[in-house]
Design a protein that fits this description.
Largest sheet: 5 strands, mixed
CATH architecture of the largest domain: 3-Layer(aba) Sandwich
CATH superfamily of the largest domain: Glutaredoxin
Shape: elongated
CATH topology of the largest domain: Glutaredoxin
Distance between the termini: 57 Å
Order of helices and strands: HEHHEHEHEEEHHE
Oligomer: single chain
Radius of gyration: 19 Å
Number of strands: 7
Structural class: alpha/beta
């Protein structure tokens, strides 16, 4: 009888462990990231000023990539982000934004070349640009207007060419078109939440 109880307890432990690992590595990232308390929406065409930008016109558009080194979702789209930077870097400034608790030296190996990386002390960039999850893309026009904020793609590995939201936003801005409306698939955040308590 004791053997059956021990075997049953062991099987339950194994199932719970597998379930916990599956949740930790997969399932939680299939659900939308919870919107943090105190989150303020920033709307397309709204003027935004962050970091060392000033109220005068920027030299060219700025693409902010919100990234966390310990977030699996952030690592899934690294090759896609690096590809965007290679293809659009001549006309757009690409800046990686990592949360306050992360480390620039730890993030640097993930990015090609001399990609600029900013540590977001007090989550100033996240709050100003309306971002509460990583990975997220934000595109700002030279006159400081929010042109796009959202997901890179509806597919986790950025493999669906029909929903390359960040790339389509870059193409749209380059052609002089109005900001595109991709719908909720691009704007509902998925991934790893940003700690908004640091901004309060």
């Amino acid at each position: 009888m004791l053997r059956k109880i021990t075997a049953g307890a062991f099987i339950v432990l194994v199932i719970v462990t597998i379930g916990a690992l599956f949740w930790w590595t997969e399932v939680q990232y299939l659900l939308p990231t919870p919107v943090p308390e105190g989150y303020q929406e920033v709307y397309v065409n709204e003027k935004v000023y962050v970091g060392d930008t000033i109220s005068s016109k920027l030299d060219r558009p700025v693409f902010y990539h919100f990234f966390t080194t310990n977030c699996p979702c952030s690592r899934f789209n690294l090759s896609h982000f690096n590809s965007l930077r290679r293809n659009y870097g001549d006309s757009v400034d690409f800046i990686v934004v990592i949360p306050a608790e992360d480390d620039i030296a730890k993030a640097r190996p993930y990015f090609e070349g001399k990609t600029r990386i900013i540590r977001d002390v007090n989550q100033e960039f996240a709050v100003a640009l309306g971002v509460y999850s990583t990975p997220q893309a934000v595109l700002i026009t030279p006159d400081h207007k929010l042109y796009f904020r959202g997901n890179y793609n509806k597919a986790r590995y950025c493999t669906d060419p029909l929903s390359n939201f960040a790339q389509m936003a870059l193409d749209s801005l380059h052609s002089g078109a109005h900001p595109p409306d991709f719908g909720p698939l691009s704007s509902i955040a998925y991934g790893c939440g940003i700690d908004y308590t640091l901004s309060m």
